[in-house]
Amino acid sequence: MSHTVSGFVLSGGRSSRFGSNKLLHHVGEKPMGLIVYNNLKSAIQSETFFVGPVIDHPDFAGMPRITGSREGQGPLGAICDVLENANTELVIFAPCDTPYFFADQFRQLSESLGQYSVVVSADASIPHLRHWLLSCWNVELAKDHMISAFESGERAIHRAVVGLNVRDQFFSEQLLTNINTPLDAQ
Length: 186
Description:
By secondary structure, the protein is of the alpha/beta class. It has helices at residues 32-44, 74-85, 103-111, 139-151, 157-160, 173-176; strands at residues 5-10, 26-27, 30-31, 48-51, 65-66, 90-95, 118-123, 126-138, 166-171.
């Protein structure tokens, strides 16, 4: 059975370790945020949005973007905003600093969700290292649980998901690489 799916590139961080807006950092010929957006959009062939503040840059002019009532309250706040307002059955998240996670990997996330509430990317070489922001969520199964955890004061995704049916999808370390400093992009 095929599900409706939408994609969300998380772009609201302060990039404090990076020193400038990560979204705009070029990896090869393109801004990193556009690479992630294009990889995700290509995988799902459906609605894909940036989540976070307005990006004042010509490369991002007119790009679809959402914000919610939890804007600025961390990744869990962004996840809750998306789950609360999603108009699709599944949502896939990607942080703006993961340019080496390609369309095939995003498709694997959505195809492996099955009866689970969430499927999360995990490092094949370090099994308990989960990348919560590279994940696919069943909106109906996860929304109320995650919003309740957030409203009770939880801000850590790995603690908020306790009680949900979670599946790990293993990928190589290279695919999961996120760019936290300019040196990471070299």
